[in-house]
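To the wet lab folks,

You asked to see what we're planning to order before we commit. Fair enough. Below is the target structure as C-alpha cells, and below that is the sequence we designed to fit it. If anything looks off to you, flag it before the synthesis order goes out.
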C-alpha cells in the first residue's frame, strides 16, 4: 500500500491562457498527471466584430472535459475558496497573465512552478519572445522557475538554451519554445518528486524586462538602421505585426530582407522596379517580401505588386 502512495502522481492545477501554454497542459494529460482543474483568463472581445473569444487553453481543456475556472482576479475570495477546495499538490503556470498571491503560492505541497520563454533573469515580463528578437539576441531558451510573489523573479529550477535562427520570426520561436517548455516541465516535475532539484536564485544584476507590447512599439521608423528594422519585423511577425502607412492606410510587414547598399533617397522612400519593393532606411534599404494592406489579406510581395499603385519616389510612414 505504501508503495502505491509513493507512486501516485501529484494532482496538478494548471494555469495558462494563450497557445503557448497548450503543449504544457497537453503533456501533463499525456503523461497521466491528474489535472484537477484549468484556470485561464476570462473570454475577451476579439476581431472586428468584437465577439467574445475563448482562450486557446480553455478550448483545449473543454475538449478534454477538464473543469475550467476563469476568475477576473485570482486574488478574489471566491477563487481562493475554489482553489482551497481543489487542493492541488502542484500548480503549473504557463503564460497565465496574472501574478499569484501568497495565499496560492504557499498552499500546494510542491509549490507553484512557471514555464517562462526566456533565459531568466533576462526578459522578465509579458512579451519575452518579441523583445528577445527585437533587441537582436542570437540565443534564448526556456526557464522553469519556482514562483514567488514577484514578476518572474523566483528561483531557477531548470533552464535550457537554444540558438535563434537568423530569419526566425517570433511565431517560429513561439512554437519551438512551447514544445521545448512542455518537455522541460515534465523533467522538472519528475525531479521535484524525486527531491533531486537544486534551486538557483536569479542574479539581480542581470535582470532585464520585456514589457507588454503597445501599439506604437510596432511602428516602423524608416530612419533606423536596416538591422534594427529587420529585427523589429521578425519580432512582431505574425502578430501583432510591424507596420507603416501608405495613403493613410496601415501596411503591415511580416517578412523583409535587408540590403546594406547605401540609399540615396530619404528614409521611407520607395523604389518599385516591378519585381520588388525597396524602401530606403537609415543605412541601406529594406526589400519587402510579405505584407498586408489594411482591409486586405496577407499576401506575398509579388501578388501585392500586381495591384500596387505605389511608384518610385513615393514615401511610406
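Sequence we intend to order:
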Amino acid at each position: 500500500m505504501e508503495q502505491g502512495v509513493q507512486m501516485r502522481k501529484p494532482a496538478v492545477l494548471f494555469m495558462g491562457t494563450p497557445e503557448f501554454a497548450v503543449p504544457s497542459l497537453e503533456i501533463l494529460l499525456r503523461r497521466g498527471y491528474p489535472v484537477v482543474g484549468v484556470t485561464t483568463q476570462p473570454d475577451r472581445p476579439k476581431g472586428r466584430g468584437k465577439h467574445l473569444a475563448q482562450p486557446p487553453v480553455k478550448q483545449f481543456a473543454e475538449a478534454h472535459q477538464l473543469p475550467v475556472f476563469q476568475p477576473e482576479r485570482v486574488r478574489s475570495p471566491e477563487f481562493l475558496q475554489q482553489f482551497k477546495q481543489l487542493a492541488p499538490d502542484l500548480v503549473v503556470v504557463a503564460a497565465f497573465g496574472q501574478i499569484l498571491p501568497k495565499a496560492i503560492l504557499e498552499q500546494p505541497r510542491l509549490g507553484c512552478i512557471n514555464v517562462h520563454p526566456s533565459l531568466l533573469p533576462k526578459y522578465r515580463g509579458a512579451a519575452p519572445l518579441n523583445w528577445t528578437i527585437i533587441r537582436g539576441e542570437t540565443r534564448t531558451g526556456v526557464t522553469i522557475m519556482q514562483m514567488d510573489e514577484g514578476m518572474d523573479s523566483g528561483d531557477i529550477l531548470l533552464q535550457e538554451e537554444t540558438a535563434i535562427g537568423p530569419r526566425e520570426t517570433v511565431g517560429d520561436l513561439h512554437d519551438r519554445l512551447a514544445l521545448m517548455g512542455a518537455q522541460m516541465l515534465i523533467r522538472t516535475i519528475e525531479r521535484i518528486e524525486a527531491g533531486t532539484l537544486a534551486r538557483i536564485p536569479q542574479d539581480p544584476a542581470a535582470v532585464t524586462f520585456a514589457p507588454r507590447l503597445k501599439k506604437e512599439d510596432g511602428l516602423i521608423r524608416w530612419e533606423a538602421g536596416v538591422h534594427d528594422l529587420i529585427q523589429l519585423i521578425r519580432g512582431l511577425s505574425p502578430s501583432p505585426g510591424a507596420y507603416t502607412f501608405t495613403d493613410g492606410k496601415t501596411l503591415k510587414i511580416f517578412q523583409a530582407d535587408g540590403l546594406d547598399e547605401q540609399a540615396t533617397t530619404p528614409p521611407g522612400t520607395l523604389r518599385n522596379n516591378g519585381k520588388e519593393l525597396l524602401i530606403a532606411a537609415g543605412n541601406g534599404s529594406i526589400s519587402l517580401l510579405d505584407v498586408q494592406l489594411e482591409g486586405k489579406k496577407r499576401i506575398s510581395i509579388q501578388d501585392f505588386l500586381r495591384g500596387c499603385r505605389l511608384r518610385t519616389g513615393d514615401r511610406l510612414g
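Structural context that might help your review: Residues 170-194 form the longest helix (25 residues). The chain is about 25% helix and 25% strand.

Thanks,
Computational group
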